[in-house]
């Protein structure tokens, strides 16, 4: 097992910047804004041949007893409990605060290996200003600059020095790759609550306030021998309602999470119905070619009449996602989650389905024999053979003559036959037409 290092400190001391530096990534949102990180955020780092796991945490207020700061404190305590070593980050330029003392007292009581790190210390190595941090009672103060990369290697060595070398374990050669599952939707539809229910713990901050999640948080998970990377995302609002720069960063992270996903779970709110923003998010998922499953959360909170209206609304406003399966769930009460998992796995299999050229060509010729494409002037499109051109989403390439005249209606006819044969539920299917070049066309022009 790789050692785990938790980054702990009060808000806006540079923990996320340090996280990105240690993991050599941009996974954590960074901005000059206190309280940006709220959930535990995991990443992998490497120093030479030594690998480790880093946990980024929100601003820690040990004495917080209510509200969002209390939930953030729970996340930090859980991260410290999971960690083998703690890096306590303080602000070298702001000096010691009463909150630093509270955190130091908490860490001393736990007795875990702790490295006191003064961030934002560019040009301050050995400076007298750092001496005040010794009053925290955590030993030597190590000056770093996460933004400039100064002192990072020494920091990692110190954090790992007190930990045993991990035992080498070989992974099975046939181990399945993890499915990247992104949970997307509007703010406050229950995305974090759903993931917490799946995990059986309060892994993510779930609070009755829109916009609680700001970053795209990845959580490893395994079910029935299949590994998943569950990605919780920030809720996507309408453009006109995104005012804060932080929220704009969150939108970018959410769109990136959709782009990198194998399957997207689009979560709707039964109490709010299908909104324009739901349709916009669905349209973006379709545009990016991601496999998708629709789930209506808070189904237990509406009556029969509202359920009928909602079902009709989904049929009309999300008609372009007819290929996606629809599920009605309650994340809080754990209702409907079994069939939802089956649908997510089925959508992934459909998105990565392999279709042989002989079978595709046979289906194509049978479809043409059943119904020929419409004639365009003197020419009737001639469809000769088909083959697979890609996966996730599946792409079928059809070759022939005069294929530019094939109508959209006929493409939908072909798509329906391909979907039925290969059971392509939950994934978009793209059909590309490639017209053969006439070798005598140039001679005729001459």
From TrEMBL:
Family: Belongs to the TRAFAC class TrmE-Era-EngA-EngB-Septin-like GTPase superfamily. EngA (Der) GTPase family.
Pfam families cross-referenced by the UniProt entry: KH_dom-like, MMR_HSR1
PROSITE patterns referenced in this protein's UniProt entry, alphabetically: G_ENGA
Keywords: GTP-binding, Nucleotide-binding, Repeat, Ribosome biogenesis
Domain of life: Bacteria
A GO MF term: GTP binding
BP GO annotations: ribosome biogenesis
Gene that this sequence comes from: der
SUPFAM superfamilies listed in its UniProt record: P-loop containing nucleoside triphosphate hydrolases
Function: GTPase that plays an essential role in the late steps of ribosome biogenesis.
Protein's recorded name: GTPase Der
Residues that coordinate or bind GTP 1: 9-16, 56-60, 119-122
Subunit structure: Associates with the 50S ribosomal subunit.
EngA-type G domain: residues covered: 3-167, 179-352
Record organism: Simplicispira suum
Annotated positions binding GTP 2: 185-192, 232-236, 297-300
């Amino acid at each position: 097992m790789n050692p785990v290092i938790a980054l702990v400190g009060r808000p806006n001391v540079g923990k996320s910047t340090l996280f990105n530096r240690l993991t050599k990534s941009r996974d954590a949102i960074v901005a000059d804004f206190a309280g940006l990180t709220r959930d535990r955020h995991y990443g992998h780092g490497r120093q030479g041949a030594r690998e480790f796991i880093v946990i980024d945490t929100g601003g820690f207020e040990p004495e917080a007893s209510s509200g969002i700061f209390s939930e953030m404190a729970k996340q930090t305590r859980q991260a410290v409990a999971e960690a083998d070593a703690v890096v306590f980050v303080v602000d070298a330029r702001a000096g010691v605060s009463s909150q630093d003392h509270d955190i130091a007292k908490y860490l001393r009581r736990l007795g875990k290996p702790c490295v006191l790190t003064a961030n934002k210390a560019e040009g301050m190595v050995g400076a007298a200003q750092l001496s005040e941090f010794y009053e925290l009672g955590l030993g030597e103060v190590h000056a770093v600059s996460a933004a400039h990369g100064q002192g990072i290697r020494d920091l990692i060595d110190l954090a790992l020095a007190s930990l045993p070398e991990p035992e080498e374990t070989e992974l099975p050669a046939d181990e399945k790759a993890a499915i990247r599952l992104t949970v997307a939707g509007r703010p406050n539809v229950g995305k974090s609550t759903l993931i917490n229910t799946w995990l059986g713990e309060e892994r993510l901050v779930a609070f009755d306030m829109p916009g609680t999640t700001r970053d795209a948080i990845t959580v490893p998970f395994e079910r029935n021998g299949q590994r998943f990377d569950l990605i919780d995302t920030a809720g996507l609002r309408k453009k006109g309602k995104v005012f804060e720069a932080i929220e704009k960063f969150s939108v970018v992270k959410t769109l990136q999470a959709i782009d990198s996903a194998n399957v997207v779970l689009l979560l709707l709110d039964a109490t709010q119905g299908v909104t324009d923003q739901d349709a916009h998010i669905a349209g973006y998922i379709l545009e990016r070619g991601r496999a998708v499953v629709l789930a209506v959360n808070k189904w237990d909170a509406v009556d029969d009449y509202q359920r009928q209206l909602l079902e009709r609304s989904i049929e009309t406003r999300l008609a372009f996602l007819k290929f996606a399966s629809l599920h009605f769930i309650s994340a809080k009460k754990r209702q409907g989650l079994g069939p939802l998992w089956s649908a997510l796995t089925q959508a992934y299999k459909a998105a990565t389905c392999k279709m042989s050229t002989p079978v595709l060509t046979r289906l194509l010729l049978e479809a043409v024999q059943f119904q020929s494409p419409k004639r365009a002037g003197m020419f009737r499109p001639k469809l000769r053979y088909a083959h697979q051109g890609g996966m996730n989403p599946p792409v079928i390439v059809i070759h022939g003559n005069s294929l530019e005249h094939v109508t959209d209606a006929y493409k939908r006819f072909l798509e329906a036959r391909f979907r039925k044969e290969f059971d392509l539920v939950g994934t978009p299917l793209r059909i590309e037409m490639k017209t053969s070049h006439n070798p005598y066309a140039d001679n005729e022009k001459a």
